[in-house]
Specification:
With 182 residues, the protein is α+β, with helices and mostly antiparallel strands. It has one helix spanning 2-25, and strands at residues 26-30, 45-49, 63-66, 79-85, 90-94, 97-101, 107-109, 123-124, 132-136, 152-153, 157-166, 172-173.
Length: 182
C-alpha cells in the first residue's frame, strides 16, 4: 500500500508540474476574426509560444497573438496579426505593395505571397516608436490593424503563433515568413 501511495504522489506531482509548465509556456487561442484569411480561418485554434520573445526579439513576418492596445478595452479579445514594421522604421502602402522605410534611409518593398488581395487604399505611417511594432492582418481589406493609428507595444504581445491544432485538416506548423533582403 505504501509503494502504491508513493507512486501515486510522484505521478500527481509530475502531472501538476507538467500542467503548470505548459500553462506558462504555451496557450491555446481560438481565432475570432477574419483578418488573417485565407491563412487562418475564424474558429481555427492555434497554439501560441509564450516564451520565445524572452530569448529573442520579435521579427518581421512573425504571426503573433496580442492584447489590443488602447483605445481598445483591456478586456478585448486578443487579436492575431503579422509583424510588418519594427521599431525605428516606417511603413508605407502604395498600389497594394508594402514598403519599409528603414532608419538608414533605405526602402524595402515586401514580397508577401501570403496576401491574396492587396490593400486597396494607400497608407503612409509615422516612425514606429522604440519597443513598438507595426502589425497587419493578411486579409488587408478587412483587418483592424496598425493602419488605424496604433502601434503595438512589445508588452502587449502574448506570443508567437506556433501550431494550428483545429480543425484537423488545418493541422500544421504556422507559416511565419522571412523576407529576402533583410
Amino acid at each position: 500500500m505504501r509503494a502504491f501511495l508513493r507512486d501515486f504522489l510522484i505521478t500527481l506531482v509530475i502531472a501538476v508540474v507538467i500542467f503548470f509548465g505548459l500553462q506558462i509556456t504555451v496557450q491555446s487561442y481560438i481565432i475570432n476574426e477574419t483578418c488573417m484569411e485565407p491563412n487562418f480561418q475564424e474558429g481555427q485554434r492555434v497554439l501560441v509560444n509564450k516564451v520565445i520573445y524572452k530569448f529573442r526579439e520579435p521579427e518581421r513576418g512573425d504571426v503573433i497573438v496580442l492584447h489590443p492596445p488602447p483605445p481598445y478595452s483591456p478586456k478585448a479579445i486578443p487579436f492575431i496579426k503579422r509583424i510588418i514594421g519594427l521599431p525605428g522604421e516606417s511603413v508605407e502602402i502604395n498600389e497594394g505593395i508594402v514598403y519599409i522605410h528603414k532608419e538608414d534611409g533605405s526602402v524595402l518593398p515586401l514580397d508577401e505571397p501570403y496576401v491574396i488581395k492587396p490593400a486597396k487604399y494607400p497608407f503612409k505611417g509615422n516612425t514606429i516608436p522604440e519597443n513598438e511594432y507595426f502589425v497587419l492582418g493578411d486579409n488587408r481589406n478587412n483587418s483592424d490593424d496598425s493602419r488605424n493609428g496604433w502601434t503595438l507595444p512589445r508588452q502587449n504581445i502574448i506570443g508567437k503563433a506556433w501550431l494550428s491544432i483545429w480543425p484537423p485538416d488545418r493541422w500544421r506548423l504556422v507559416a511565419n515568413y522571412s523576407y529576402e533582403g533583410e
